[in-house]
Automatic annotation (TrEMBL):
Pfam families: DegT_DnrJ_EryC1 (PF01041)
UniProt keyword list: Aminotransferase, Pyridoxal phosphate, Transferase
Similarity comment: Belongs to the DegT/DnrJ/EryC1 family.
Active site positions: 185 (proton acceptor)
SUPFAM superfamilies: PLP-dependent transferases (SSF53383)
Source organism of this protein record: Jilunia laotingensis
Gene Ontology terms: biological process: polysaccharide biosynthetic process
Sites bearing N6-(pyridoxal phosphate)lysine, chain numbering: 185
GO MF term set: pyridoxal phosphate binding; transaminase activity
Entry annotated with the keyword Hydrolase: no
Name of the protein described by the UniProt record: DegT/DnrJ/EryC1/StrS family aminotransferase
Gene3D superfamilies linked to this entry: Aspartate Aminotransferase, domain 1 (3.90.1150.10), Type I PLP-dependent aspartate aminotransferase-like (Major domain) (3.40.640.10)
Length: 370
């Protein structure tokens, strides 16, 4: 292959031979969507795999965020992080909620619990936090603040598929957590997502909301939306679930290899594993200290690109810098110094289950021989 390009990720795909009989079965059943057989099977299997009692499948990872806010009747202002994928904040915007950005913790890149209380106003109704790169937020402290002020907590867990702390799923934290099963994520259903809640009533309400609000043939309980996952992607998801643990282990090996090589390079900072955490190695961010490394983040990023190594600057620019949000008081850079510093220094290296040792060698040699 000429001009081989090393991409930041590569999708986990089930084998086509395994997939075809499932398709034949769907063709035979002629039931394509609306809580079909494979949809129900995938919800059951995901509950088991993720160790959670209630899960609702969605057609992507953005609609569960939007529906979570609807289900919890969140209004006014929500405290959130500028260091995430834009969908996190867009879900607030689509609900007419004002996002209030709070700076991040430089160690985890997650919202800094020390800075949350100062951002609370009488209009605050919830905290929307993100387990960035699948690294768990400080869930205990966030819950303590939420309890003190009577706030709901929603976790955007799009990066955190399968992540556990001391054997417990992090999806148990807060009132609702959401997942994305987009093709670029650790576990994918091509497009897809899910919402995790903690009681049957909420699950029921969510399932109504994702189906236009229908609670029966003629009953609409709320202005719902269409967020349903179809049978084809549910079947694909069942097959992918069987190989996701092995894929996470392959990612783990990549992370070990990367870290061993990169720890020794002055000016390159990597994230280490956290005690008691089962990580999913969804991303491999490095942080470039231009002065110590002798080259800026962007210089390294474009140098990699010249060699067909496509890292990604996740998350640059910050959400608070986009035109929709930058006029907000809380979006001012002076309130978000850590987030800006991190966003200006990060590159996510190629990280996936099938990254070859040769590709890793090439990537590492570019970073070493600057
Ligand atoms: C991928 C992602 C989403 C959105 O998921 P989609 O399935 O692409 O709609 C939301 N939040 C974060 C943090 C993400 O990385």
């Amino acid at each position: 292959m000429e001009n081989k390009v090393i991409t930041v990720t590569s999708p986990l795909l089930p084998s086509l031979d395994d997939f075809l009989p499932y398709m034949q079965d769907i063709w035979d059943r002629k039931w394509l969507t609306n809580n079909g057989y494979y949809h129900q099977e995938l919800e059951k299997s995901l509950c088991e795999y993720l160790k959670v009692p209630y899960i609702s499948l969605f057609t992507n990872g953005t609609l569960p965020l939007i529906c979570a806010l609807q289900a919890l009747r969140i209004t006014g202002e929500v405290i959130t992080t500028p260091y995430s994928f834009v969908a996190t904040t867009h879900s607030l915007w689509w609900n007419g909620i004002k996002p209030v950005f709070v700076d991040i913790d430089p160690m985890t890149c997650n919202i800094d619990p020390d800075k949350i209380e100062a951002a609370i106003t009488p209009k605050t109704t919830a905290i929307m936090a993100v387990h960035v790169y699948g690294k768990p937020c400080d869930m205990e402290r966030i819950q303590a603040i939420a309890d003190k002020y009577g706030l709901k907590v929603i976790y955007d867990a799009a990066h955190a598929f399968g992540v556990e702390v001391n054997g417990k799923s992090i999806l148990e934290a807060g009132d609702i957590s959401t997942l994305s099963f987009h093709a670029t994520k650790v576990y994918n259903t091509i497009e897809g997502g899910a919402l995790v809640c903690h009681d049957e009533n909420t699950k029921k309400r969510i399932d109504y909301l994702k189906n236009f609000g229908f609670a029966g043939e003629t009953t609409i309980i709320a202005p719902g939306i269409n967020g349903k996952m179809d049978e084809v992607r549910a079947a694909y998801g069942l097959l992918n679930l069987k190989q996701v643990s092995a894929a996470i282990e392959s990612r783990h090996q990549v992370a070990v290899r990367y870290r061993e090589a990169l720890r020794e390079i002055p000016g390159i900072h990597v994230m280490e594993d956290m005690l008691g955490v089962r990580h999913n190695y969804s991303y491999f961010p490095i942080f470039v200290d231009a002065e110590r490394y002798g080259m800026s983040r962007d210089e390294l990023y474009f140098k990699m690109k010249e060699s067909n190594v496509l890292g990604r600057r996740y998350f640059y620019p910050l959400i608070s810098e986009f035109s929709t949000y930058r006029g907000l008081e809380s979006a001012k850079p002076e309130y978000l110094p850590v987030a800006h510093k991190v966003a200006d220094s990060v590159i996510c290296l190629p990280m996936h289950h099938a990254l070859s040792p040769d590709d890793m060698n090439l990537i590492l040699s570019i970073i070493k021989n600057k």
